[in-house]
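note to self: dont lose this again. the chain is below, predicted strucutre after it. 179 aa total, dont forget to put it in the shared folder this time
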Amino acid sequence: KKLNKKDLRTAAMNILMKVPGTDRNKLLRIALKDKNKIFVANTLVAYTPYANSKGINMAVKKLESESSSDATTSIIYWLGNQKEESAINAIIRCLNSSEKSVQIAAIKSLAKTDSKESVKALINLFKNENTDLISLVKNALLTVSNDNLSNDLALIFQESSDPGKKAILEIIELRQWKS
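---
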């Protein structure tokens, strides 16, 4: 198979990340400036074994400054996989994006972090009337291991939309069944 320019850039980034003494944060900075979602995602994967607070902070700053690029979803998913507390607020802000792919990435990533703050942000989405969004949140919350989730859901039940209330009841029922 003949490699195209995008494949070559990804291959080069993967090789450079493995070279001892390489400034991996500089490589990450270069990738984060790129608009190519696949290149950014592959660079983040290559960077993961070397991830440090400086690199995570760069990704968070990129997320805060640009919430509508194609690469944004890659950054959100990566930060969620890192379960980095410092990224949670930036990911929460992405819940308000007008782009559905960004919202989906934020919902799934917040569920992965499984923090109280993330769960609270997700639960608050049950006030929304959008049934597709509520379904995504419900499925994401079914993956969290938060012991207080049922109590937190009960607290927001009255403020929730009708589709949100239905999802809350389904989550509580499924969680009780799994116990």
